[in-house]
Fold these 4 entries.
Entry 1:
Amino acid sequence: MNKAEILEAARAQIRAEGEVLIGIAGQIDESFIDAVELVVNCPGKILATGAGTSGTMARRLAHLLATCGMSAFYQHPGEALHGPSAAIAAGDVIIALSKAGKSQELNTFCKVAKARGAKIMAWTWYPDSPLGQISDVVLQIRPDEKGEGEDVLPFGSSLANGAVGDALTLIAKQMRGFDLHTLVQTHPSGATSDLVR
C-alpha cells in the first residue's frame, strides 16, 4: 500500500464504524428501557461478563457503572465457574455480552446465577440464541457487518457495545441521582476534577 492508500483505508474504516453507531441508535427500542430499569432498581451487585472482546467491553462497562456510583464489577465467566459464583445472590444483575450467544462457559455461568436469584440481561446479535433464551432482558445489538474489520474482526461491534453501555450508564447515573461532585470526590486521580466546576 502506498501512502494515499493507507490514509484512504484508515478513513474508510473509521467512516464505516461511525455509520455503525448511527445505525445502532436506530435499533434501540423498549428493551433498552427494561435494561435501564433493571440497572437503576438493582438492590444488589451488577456483574458484567463476557469472554474475548466481549469480555473487554464488559470490563469497560463495569468500570463506568462503578465510576457512576453503582456496585458494579467484571466477572470472567470461566473463573466464575470455579467458585466465585457463590457470591451471587438474589437481587443481583448479570449483564452478559456475547455476539453469538452460544458461549458454553458464559451460558453456564448465567444459568448458575439465575438459579441463585439473579436477573440476566443479554447483549447479543441473536435474541433467540441460548443466551437470549435464558435471559430476563435481551438487547439485540447487531451492527452492520461493514464496520467489522474485513467483515470479521469485532471492530464496529465493540464500539456498538460501548455506545450502548455509555447510554445505559449515563441514564442510570442520572436516574439514581449520582452527581458530578461525588464523582470528583471518588476520582481524585486524573483530570476529572479539572473538568467539573
Entry 2:
Amino acid sequence: MSLWSEIRVAWQAFKTRRKMNRQFGKREDPFSYATTPYEAARLAAMDAALGAAPLGPVLEAGCAEGHFTETLARRSSRVLALDISAVALERARRRAPRAVPVEADLMTWEPRDEAPFDAIVIGDVLYYLDRPGVSAEFAALFPRIASWLRPGGRLLLAHGFSSEKELAHRRSFRERFEAAGLRLVSEAVPDADRGGVRCLLSALEKI
C-alpha cells in the first residue's frame, strides 16, 4: 500500500470511527439490536446460516456491542470480536467476556496466528467501507478476507437494504467474494423488516 493510499484509508477510518463512537455514545444499543423483531429475526437467521456443527476459531467483523458475539461465543472455541468503535467494543467485552476484543479497521487489520478461521461473520460493515476515495483498497479487501478462511470454512454476510438499488449493491459484495474463490451456499432475505429496511443474508464457503 502506497503512502497516499495509507493516508486515504486512515482518513476514512478516522471518519468512520468518529461517527460510530458518536452513535454508540448517545446511548446503549442505539440500533435496537435487543428490542426489534427485525434484529431478532436477522440474528436468528445468521445463527442458522452458520450450520449446526460446533465451530473452531471465528472472526466477527463489526461486532458492535456484542449481541451476536454472545451466540458465537457459545458455539465456537475462540471468537475474535473486531470493531472500529472503542465505545461499542467495551460493551461487547461485558456482553461476551469469552470473546477476544480487537479494536481495528477491517481495511488494514490482518490476523496473525488466529487464522485460518472456521467462519467469518460480517454484518452491516462493508457499505461503510465502500467509499469512492478508497475503491482500490476496498476491492483488495475481498481476496484478503477470503484467504483467512480454511477450506470448507464459511463466510456470512448480513447487510441491510431499503431499495432495489441498495439490494443490488449488497449483492455485489457477495459477487466479489465469489470472484475471490468462494462458493455461494445460500442467500435469503428474512421476512422481518424495520421501517422498510430488510436484510440480505448470504452464506459462502471456501472451496
Entry 3:
Amino acid sequence: MNQNHVSWSTSQTIGLSILVFSLLLFAPITGCTSEEAERQMPAAERFALGMELFNDEDYLQAIEEFKVVTLQYQATAFADDAQFYMAESRMAREEFILAAFEYEILLRTMPTSEFVSRARFQRATCYYNMSPSSRLDQENSRKAIDEYQAFIEYHPTDSLATVAEQRITEMNTKLAQKDFDNGMTYLRLEYNKAAVYYFDLVLEKYHDTPYAEPALLRKAQAQVARKRYAEAKEALDRFREKYPNSALGSDAEALQADVTAGLAEKKAATNQQGKL
C-alpha cells in the first residue's frame, strides 16, 4: 500500500512539474507575441481601430488607441487626426477641461494640421459649455469670449464664424446681466454709489446688450437717491434720446418729476443762501 502511494505521488509530482514547465515555457512567448503585435500594428490600423471605437461611442477606449498613435507615430500623417479625435472623445465625455487641453496640444504642436480651425472653435466651446448661470463666477464665460474672438481673428471666413459671433453676444449678455443684477442688489440695499458703479459697467462694456437700457434708467434712479440731480438729469436725457419708445417710459417720467423737484429745491436753497 505504501509502495502504491509512493508511486502515485511520484507520478503526480512529475505531472505537475510538466504542467508548470509548460506554463513557464509558453507564457512569455504568448506575452511577447501580443506585445509585438501591439507594437507593430501600423499607424493606419491603430487609428482606424480608434475611429471604430469612437463611432461606437466607446470614447474611453478610443482615447487609449488615439493616445498610442500620438505617442508612437508622431511623424505619421495620422498623428494630428488622432490628437483631434482624442480631444473630441474628451468633449463627448463632457470632460471639458481635458478636452480644452488636448485641443491646445494640437494648436501648439501641429499648427499646419487641417484640424486647426475646428480645434480652435472646439476649445472655445469647452469654455462655453462650462459657462454657468449669471449668478455665479463668470471666468469661463470670459475665456469663451476670448477664445471665440481668437477663432474669428484667425479664421474670419470660416462657416463657424457666425456661430462664434452669436455665442460671444450670448456670453456678453450673461456678463451684462450679472453686473446689472449686482447694481439692482445695491440699489435695493440703498448702497447707491455702488449701484451706479455697476450700472456704469453695463453701459461702458455691454452697451449693445438688452441690459444697457434698464441700466441707464436705474443709474438715474440711483443718482436721484444720492440727490445728484444734475447727473440724474443727464442720464434721463440720454435715456430718452436713445430709447424714445422704451417700455420703461413711465418710470422715466416719474424719475423726471423727482429730478425737476430736486433741482428746483436746490436752486431755491442756493437763492436763499445768496440772500443771507
Entry 4:
Amino acid sequence: MADNENNPPQPSGSWPIPGEQTDELVRAAFPLRLGLVEGKVALVTGAGRGIGEATARLFAVEGAAVVVCDIDGDAAQSVVQSIQERGGEAVAVVADLTKEDEVAAVITTAIDRYGRLDCAVNNAGVSGRFGSFIDLPLHEWQHMINVNLTSVFLCLKYELGVMAAQGFGSIVNVSSGAGVVAAPGLPHYTAAKHGVLGLTKCAATEFAAKGVRVNAILPGTTRTPMINGFINGDPAMEKMVSRGIGRGYMGEPSEIAESAVWLCSDRASFVCGESLLVDGATVCR
C-alpha cells in the first residue's frame, strides 16, 4: 500500500517547489500506482537507506515481493518492517557484497523463499574522500573498487545465472554521473562508476537473447543521508551543492527509484544496455 494512499500530503503552490521538494511531495504527485511489478520478486542491495531504501519501498508499493539487502542488518529490518506494516511482502538479508559466498547466499535466500528472481537493483556502494590523485592511498583505491565495482560484478554473476536459467529477468545497476564524466578529486569513485557501465554493457550484450535485460541508471546529486550529513543544515552549503544541477535543486531518492522500478517492469521490455541519466539535466550528452 502506498504511504500516501489514505491521506496524501498536499503541496502548496506550484509543484515542485525548488529547494523544498521532499519524498512526500513526490509521492503526492503520483498518488495512483499501476502495479508495474505486480507479482514479481525483486532484490535491492544497499536497501537500508537512501536510494536503495526508496527503491525497495517502491517495488513493494508497485506489487513486488522485496529482498531487502544491506550490510546493516538493523537498517534492512527496519525497511522490511515498514513495508510489511503497509501490507507488502519483504525479507531482510544481511551481506557484505564484496565476499562471493555472501553474495551467493543472498541469491539462495531469494530463491528459497520465493522460488525465482525477476528483478534486481545493484545499488550498494560508498562515496569517497576528496583529495589529489597523487595523494590517494592504495588501500582507499582498493576499498572503493571492491565495494563499488567488484560487488556489482559478483551480484551480476549470480543474478544472471538464475535469470538466464529462468529465461527472464531484469537487472538495474546504479552508476553515477561520474560514470560518464570525471568527478575531480575522486579518481577511484570515477573509475568504479565508469566500470559499472562497462559491466552493464557486457552483461546486456551477452544475456539479451536469453531473456535478461541489463541496464544502468546514473543518479545525479540526491538528498540522501550522506548528502544531508555533508550539508549539515547549512543553506549556503546546500546552494553550493545544488549549483551544478540543471533544474537548480537536488533529486529525491523516490525520483531515482521511479526510474529503477520502471526499467525493471515489463513497460521497459525493449530497453536493454541503456545508461540512463537521472540527474535533472546536470550532465547532458
